[in-house]
Amino acid sequence: MEKMISCFLLLVGVFLIAARERRVPESLSSQRNDALLLEEFCSDKRLDLVFIIDSSRSVRPYDFEKVKEFILNILQFLDIRPDVTRVGLIQYGSTVKNEFSLKTFARKQDMERAVRRMMYLSTGTMTGLAIQFAVNIAFSETEGARPLSQNVPRVIMIVTDGRPQDPVAEIAAKARNSGILIFAIGVGRVDMNTLKSIGSEPYEDHVFLVANFSQIETLTSVFQNKLCGKAVN
């Protein structure tokens, strides 16, 4: 009797293992299909996008890694090619550091590698200075921005967790008036009025606030719809 029970349990174990092995390829296949659907949704979307990342001392190393993951998730669904979507990345603290410009990378893999290598500055919070840099430098034709005559949307996506230490409202207004669409993402105890002074209107479409850096990934699907849909034209 004991031998029969042992054999039965052995057969059950073999069945469960086989079932698990069958599910794994299906899961991987589903992930690949999801990625293809995302890329197809954003296929041929012309866009000049610049990320501006708060790298002040209030951002802990773990939080900074979460921001990098968020950027990598956004890159997954963009059709990154020189004649389609171009991406630049700026981080800032007391100073501004241009990680890469709109003309730096033609391949998504190289861009992802640069994002992973990015090290945070751990200094102040000069948000206005970073936006000014984007307007004057990052979106210049010499740095890879396409001429205004081509009507390629120019978009800033800024992530910040603190109060700016410089006059950001006036600088952000000039950026918006120049035709740049600004998405403002606040993390933690960021003043909503400050975020609204940065982001484009209507605020419900362009200004976002999450409780912590772990929640920022919940915005990925939101921006997939906004960047690749009709919201950016």
From TrEMBL:
Q: Please state what the protein is called.
A: VWFA domain-containing protein
Q: Where in the cell is it found?
A: Secreted
Q: Which residues form the signal peptide?
A: 1-19
A Pfam match is VWA
Q: Does the keyword Metal-binding apply?
A: no
User: Can the keyword Signal be found in this entry's annotation?
Assistant: yes
Specify the VWFA domain's residue ranges.
Answer: 48-227
Cited SMART domains: VWA
Q: Which Gene3D superfamilies match?
A: von Willebrand factor, type A domain
Query: Which PROSITE patterns does the entry mention?
Result: VWFA
Q: Which UniProt keywords apply?
A: Glycoprotein, Repeat, Secreted, Signal
Q: Name one GO cellular component term.
A: extracellular region
Give the source lineage, highest ranks first.
Eukaryota, Metazoa, Chordata, Craniata, Vertebrata
SUPFAM superfamilies according to UniProt: vWA-like
